[in-house]
Amino acid sequence: MLVDFSQIMDALVETLVMVGFSLLFSTLIGLPLGVLLVVTRKGHLLENPLVFKVLNSIINVFRSVPFIILMVAIIPLTRLIVGTSIGTSAAVVPLVFYAGPYIARLIESSLLEVQPGVIEAAEAMGATPGQIIFRFLVPEALSSLVLNLTIATIGLVGASAMAGAVGGGGLGDLAITYGYQRFDTMVMIITVVILVVLVQGLQSSGNLLSKTIRRR
């Protein structure tokens, strides 16, 4: 094997950093977008067809672009934001652009699962739209939100591995540099095993947290 344990651990840490920061920023973008997609649609709290159509179209555009193409297409923006187009920090930028709209859709889906009766009851109590959103709508959908954010996190793990194809660092970069280009089968196997274990751990944790919230 051409790499040692420390290189594998460094690559794992880089992957976790990429996924962690991109998930944070993507959620900060996706959460308000997802909420707006729900409350501005026809017949909802803040019905606004224009805002809904604009947001819906923008999100659809970003979601239709494959990550590897998106990553290359926004290289100038990535350089403008972080000063470089390679490495872990540079990979976070396209990951956010990739995952933000995806998370918005997942959040929209979770919020739409809330029964209309919950909103009607809140309105009957005189709650404002803001109170309905943050005290009734989001809490009611929390269990589903956790599951959907788990799905988004797993998607980011896969995308972070693809980022290695263009120098994004992490396990993907390790697998391509040593496993593919230098024909080191053992590195490829170890990388795949680590990614499988990571995904399984994330999914199990998300399921457990969602179940715990549902029981409350």
Automatic annotation (TrEMBL):
According to the entry, every stretch annotated as the ABC transmembrane type-1 domain falls at 12-204
A GO-annotated cellular component: plasma membrane
Q: Which CDD domains match?
A: TM_PBP2 (cd06261)
This protein's UniProt keywords: Cell membrane, Membrane, Transmembrane, Transmembrane helix, Transport
Q: Which GO BP terms, alphabetically?
A: D-methionine transmembrane transport
Where does the UniProt entry say this protein principally localizes?
Answer: membrane
Q: Which Pfam families match?
A: BPD_transp_1 (PF00528)
Q: Where is this gene product found?
A: Cell membrane
Q: Which InterPro entries match?
A: AA_ABC_Transporter_Permease, MetI-like, MetI-like_sf
Under Gene3D superfamilies, the record lists: MetI-like (1.10.3720.10)
The record's comment on protein family reads:
Belongs to the binding-protein-dependent transport system permease family. CysTW subfamily.
Protein name from the UniProt record = Methionine ABC transporter permease MetI
Question: What is the gene called?
Answer: metI
